Amino acid sequence: MIIFEEKISLEKLPEFCEKLAQEISSGDCVCLSGEIGSGKTTFLYHFLKTLGMEEDVDFSSPTFTIHHIYKIKEKIFHHIDLYRLGNFSELETLDLIPFFQSSQDVVFVEWGDKFKELQPLYNKKINFFYLPGENNSRLISYDVSRSHLKKGL
Predict the structure, then answer these.
(1) CATH assignment of 3-143, given 3.40.50.300, 2.30.38.10, 3.40.50.1010, 3.30.360.10?
(2) Predicted TM-score of the model (pTM)
(3) Is pLDDT at 122 greater than 50 in this prediction?
């Protein structure tokens, strides 16, 4: 396991996303973890903007809808939020597991560490941590050691 950690301010987030975009490829399933408000959705917004998401796209957290799909330059990105799910069987009932196993799409899962049954499906993990006294910065740790040999979008 190789874990990188960086202190990232909101202003530097787009630059960080550009760098990380080189590590995320079609077929990746990315676990996003961190406390409420730690920056998971904000990160994904900036990440997708870096890749060319249009200004007029209605981007929001899928906390209540569970799943959003974005198409950017012919690539499909799934944004799944497990926060409201009480157990793994709810995820199965919603028939979301096939998205986690996609070999062509990229899947980002907020609260991805919530169910141990999903852990083997993730090949990337990004964790967001509050920094005491710094409202606009987060410590972001990410593990790219479980990466496929594919690179870049």
Answers:
(1) 3.40.50.300
(2) 0.90
(3) yes
